[in-house]
Amino acid sequence: MTFGVPYSFVPGTKAKADEVNANFIDVLSKIEDTNLRIDETISNANSKNQENSAKFEEVEAKFEECADLALSNLSSAGMAVLDKKANTSDIDGKWVTKTTVFLNMVTISNSETTVVSLSSYLPNDGNIYEVMFSMEGSCGTAQFRFDTGYGSVYALYAKSIFGGAFNMLVSSARTLNIYRTGLCSGTNKMYLRATAYRKVR
To answer: How far apart are CA 19 and CA 6, in angstroms?
Structure first.
């Protein structure tokens, strides 16, 4: 922006006092006007800064609120996203060592299902658990099928003394069903215990 003054003076001529004073007054007026504009700009900037600070505090408070959400508040869709992205070792529970005997040389019937209740062994929280079982026994020839509702495990033995171990997922029903198949012969007796469990997804 270009500023001028009311009067111009030529070298070698006399300047009138009124004209010189008029020029000074005009310059002072322009300086005051400029100062007013500077003050207004600073005031607007301060107001904008305060507005931005208020918005920042609002965003920060919202972030803290979101960060403080418990996982239990997540929807099933949100949990599915976490399950898909997370490492399973971070989600599956740690093994809990706990030994309980369920069958103590019990005869496994040809015609009836041997039902083992795991309710007293596992937490009653509706979650899925993986259980580590071990067994020993005596038989002529024996094939057993173990079922917990999440598939089956077969074990075949053809000698008088047998032993083994297996892991199975257990549903909320908390039962282990043992079946003796048609490959069995003679009397089959079993000693069965659970040795450890962990929560899985």
So the answer is: 8
